[in-house]
Amino acid sequence: MSNLDYAPPAIRQTRRALIYMALIALSGIILAPFLMIVVLALSSPAEVFAWPPVLIPDNIQWQNFSDVFRVTNFGRAMFNTFVIATVSTIGIVLIDGLAGYAFAKMRFPGRTTMFLLILATLMVPVHVTIIPLFIMFRNFPLAGGNDIFGNGGFGILNSYPSMVLPFLATAYGTYLMTSFMRMLPDNLVEAARMDGAHEFAIFWKIYLPLAAPALTVIAMFNFTAVWNEFLVPLVMTSTADMKVIQTALADFSDQETVLWNLLMAAVLISILPLVLMFIVGQKHLVRGVAVGGTKG
């Protein structure tokens, strides 16, 4: 114990008050940009450029939120983003879960080498693979007007698969699931095999439910990452009906002007699902991170 633990009550209370003040000041710094977004989203165009800045709009413009969907096709972009994020999250939970089970509970030649190769991809930024992925999707056989050799059309570009496939599996998710499942008892596998259960049934009925904390972390992190993804949809799509939220935000600006109030309203609408997700899943997320960190 430090000497401060034996300090008089007045000194301890002063120290506690200073810590609280520092935390409140830090919270204010973090929340200030978000509060400014709220103010701009509820302001009129004139109040956006007013000086000194308007902290409380004189006439709150609630119609800005409806104008977001009227001025642009933002509703379609939100639907596209939801589909892509949901499908990729389901895929990553299944694929990374299966990979973690295989590396942790099964024995096969080259297991360690393959696992190390997967971990090595953590050092490669995901966006470095954008151009190779674009070429692969562009030359995808028998899709988008392509022949069997991948020529003549546009492959699977401008489609959901081109934005889902890059996020169906991650090296981090595989590592986390492998580390977590290694801590689960092996006798469950042995008992299930003696009862005649096949490997997928063992994974699905026994280990997948036990790995729920780690799967929650992977699912929430992946859903957030895909929801906020910009570069992959920008490269893989070129049509208005396949835009996602992050690319659709550019519709509120052009070379001459930016509709700041509508843009900020669209930003608030776009982050609302993520806020609700973290509020609902906060306990599971904290538990998953804690358990993963303890057993990693």
Automatic annotation (TrEMBL):
InterPro entries the record matches: MetI-like, MetI-like_sf
Domain of life: Bacteria
Topological relation to the membrane, as annotated: Multi-pass membrane protein
Keyword Kinase included in the entry's annotation: no
Keywords of the record: Cell inner membrane, Cell membrane, Membrane, Transmembrane, Transmembrane helix, Transport
Subcellular location, record wording: Cell inner membrane; Cell membrane
Pfam family for this entry, one: BPD_transp_1
Ranges annotated as spanning the membrane: 18-42, 82-103, 115-137, 163-185, 206-227, 258-280
Chain ranges of the ABC transmembrane type-1 domain: 78-281
Family: Belongs to the binding-protein-dependent transport system permease family.
Subunit (UniProt): The complex is composed of two ATP-binding proteins (UgpC), two transmembrane proteins (UgpA and UgpE) and a solute-binding protein (UgpB).
Job of this protein: Part of the ABC transporter complex UgpBAEC involved in sn-glycerol-3-phosphate (G3P) import. Probably responsible for the translocation of the substrate across the membrane.
Protein name (Swiss-Prot/TrEMBL): sn-glycerol-3-phosphate transport system permease protein UgpE
Biological source species: Pseudotabrizicola sediminis
Gene from which this protein is expressed: ugpE
